[in-house]
Amino acid sequence: MKFVAPPFSMVRSSVLMVALSLTYGCNDSDARRHVASAAEDISPTIHRSVKIGPQHDVSRTRGDGFEGTLTVDQDAAVHAGFKLAPLPDAEPSLFEREAIMDVEDTDTDYFADAQALMEEERVEDAVVAYRKALGKDGENAEIWFKLGRAYNMLGKDARGMECLEEAIDYKSDHAGAYSTMVRVMLDRKENKSALSYAKTLREIEPKSFRSAFLLGRSYARLKMWKESVAAFEDSLEEDPEHLWANNNLGFSALQIGEYEMAVFAYEVATGLEGARPSMFNGLGYAYERLGEPVHAMVAYDAAIDMNPRFVKAVINRERMEEKLTPEQQDEYAAFQLELPPLDTEAVEEKPVATASAATAGGGDSVNTGDAGFASAPSDETQTP
Fold it and tell me: 38: domain range?
């Protein structure tokens, strides 16, 4: 069955053209041409293609029958009444944000300049030089790494981490970038992320002190004490006399009741240059838990000698002294006779801590814990 379109009057044709103009965006000249066409010949004719959107044409045929076709025209221009909104500007890439292009100077070794500036501790100037070095070699992982670390030194962690990640993108086994990311994450207390980076670093460097030490620190932050003990033991395989690895092993061992291990680690730490009062306090605490109160007293004394305002050690010593039996008091007195004399002048120059010093504003805050012991020393660590 054929569909025969009825003849169009001038009025109906004009109305139709206006409707088409409003619907499909035809301009005034288009409408006038269609009206003129209807006026000149009302016999069956074929209208021009009407655009209904970019890349789409519809040809409509009018006559004895109706035949509709849809064609996709890739080259068709957008019609006058239909315009796409401009796309938002794309975000500049990290390279575009960081690299400084110095096209006039192609001979200067900006990377070497940056390294020299870092040795002079001119970090801000070094950052500029690293960025110029990127302008010459934007795919160099080492430049990205050095730039990221320099940003971290300036306290610009967000930019620093972006650059470190870029270094890892260009060199997936860049140990320096991973180790720096671990430290940054620990500083930011993003401990789970730190552990993730530390595990990857350990895979890259399975035998290095650095990877084991940072892995131990990451486990300790998450209170995964058994894992941290194992990691610090691995680090000491590589460097048996590392001050902070021994300190951290002692602290982690205390948390899981490995008191003999804690005593051994703290004994090593307190015998090394740079030992801190907190390490002697930790040693005393380990001896106390091991059931050796006299050795605990001696260790607490050493902590107080180093820092008379160290309230935790003072409280531990006072508590321990009250528990000594007469025999243990004699043993302790004998230890005191064997110790070298104190520098009394140096001690008198410093205010001596007492159990009430914390409330008087002196020394550290005190946390005696549920069992009445002053809390074990914090897992204070330093990067290697």
Answer: 10-72
